[in-house]
Amino acid sequence: MQRLFHSNLIVALVGSSVLAALISWALFIEIEEKVVEAPPAEQPASVSRGVDILGRRGGYQRWRLIAEQVNSESGQQVFEQGAHGYFYGEPPSQRQGEPDPFFDSSEQMTWRANQARYNAIADELYLDEEVQVESDDGSLLVTSALRVTPAERIEVPADFTLRGNGLLLQGRSGSFNFQFALLSARQGKLVVLPSDPTPATADPAAAAQWLASAAAAPGSTTITADQLTYDRTNQVARGEGNLLIQESGIEIRAPQGTYLRQQAQSILSGGVVLREVASDGHRDPLLADLTLAQASPAPEQDQEVTIIADRLTYDRNTQIAQGEGNLEIRQGETILESAQGTYRRRESQSILTGGVTLREPGRVLTSARLEGNHRDKIFFFEGDVLYRQMPDTAAAGGRGSLTEELRQADTEVRAARLVYNSRTETSEFSDAVEFIQRGRKAKARQATITPERVELRGDVLIEQIDGDWLAQRLSNPETQADVSQPTVIYADRVEIDPVSGDARFFGNVVIVQANRAIEGDRADYFDQEQIFKITAEQDPVVLCERASQSPVPQNSTEGLPGRNALDQMCRGANRLSGKLVTLNMERDEYTVEGDELQQGMFQFRITDAL
After folding, report:
1. What is the Cα–Cα distance from 322 to 272, expressed in whole angstroms?
2. For 456-501, what is each residue's pLDDT tens digit?
3. Can you give the three-state secondary structure of 54-107, one letter per residue?
4. Host H or E run for residue 549
5. With contact defined as beta carbons under 8 Å apart, do 222 and 247 qualify?
6. 414 φ, ψ to 5°?
7. Dist. CA 439–CA 436, nearest whole Å
8. What is the pTM of this model?
9. pLDDT digits (tens, 9 = 90+) for 325-345
């Protein structure tokens, strides 16, 4: 009997030793003390009294589990009482560059969970229920489930929040390496904080409340995407799918993009939309370009800017956005289009190149280059400027006055430069100005168009180009024949009043028709009566009337200055002079009033040449 007892005991001891050796060899498990009790048939086997398991990955010590009790369930070891342990990352001596935003202060990170499970067959460690991973530097990972796999990864299959130095990462699920250097999150949110207001509590509810307030803090940047990754080595966050970047005053949407944390830059592509969501203190009105800040009334309310582009880079430090490819800047009803450009939020200025188009209801402006002051909505166009005013067909109920025709007709203005004030609808053209409408064109050195007035300045020349400007409204066939040839008006300056329909011509005024020419210092055109009144301050007004038998050949005055055109028309013509000449376009009649000594009289003489 004693031999049998010793024999069974030896067999039991040998079997237990072999089993323990096999498990330790297969799983790299270190066991301080292990006592096996014979449990009832309905209860799982349990091992207690200080279980300590060490896990290795890729030849490195990566995790450790410490518990007071272990239960065996379906091939898994379950730890439910006091389970805790460590994760091990890189030693600090192996790190380079900026401090790590997550778990930087220690190569050993502490974890806690209400339950831990170890699957010996799959070599996987599961942590469940109120899982927390933290380190001395304040980094904290809070979730409800965590899994350590043989693939050198820490997988988080549930909602999680990861707080680090100046960064917060959330997701519906995610994965990390043991160095916490490469992190990914599904339905992820990354919050870049202006400072590190780390909360004193690790309570999940308190941490979530703190996270919400931190994300809304001024100076923070929030990045969300369907799939979000953060590369600690390069300090780059990458977003794929429904990428949204939000910070004080703006939001940027794109299919994909990256955020460079060190440079505080966003680089996005695939169709980008940058939208200002509210006015804030980041704009400095004193930094606007003074050359564009012309006198204008203060805006009633700011119109926020939206930028659309194929590719966009935004620097949050300088608040400069650079867009390329189908670039659009939208502000209220104003749309700017170009191949590429820059928008400076702090100064509210844009610089667009590569061909620019501004669209507003009723008008389109184009040029080679544009500088915009979006605070005052003043835009400077340069190079091949073209201004187009489309007709308002609803307002044009029928044939109106001359000025109404000017307003309603399709109008083009070409120039080298243009300053356009969108708020006041004022356009200032300069250098080689050409004003074109159906039936007429004008040339000048400068021009101004406002809702109240059209003004042309500097060697102004207005020419009828298809004969229907005046002839269509005259019933006399002979008069129609007279004005069917181009009518040219020269002046130093011309004003057209849209309210009254009157036009005023100032300085060296010359009116040239087929068989008539008039010279004076000023001419007033009264649109309602279709009457010109030409006056002079010193020299008398001169009117030359040619007989129908001696007309001047067509185009003989084309390209001539006003004085030369007058001389050409007056050769061999009847010449009258006086203080005032009244020309009635409707009835093709004119009167000449004399000077102060000959009030009511006129001079008449026929000369072969002047």
Report:
1. 11
2. 999 998 876 544 444 444 455 554 554 455 678 889 999 988 677 6
3. EEEECCEEEEEEEEEEEEEECCEEEECCCCEEEEECCCHHHCCCCCCCCCCCCC
4. none
5. yes
6. -115, 145
7. 8
8. 0.75
9. 999 999 999 999 999 999 999
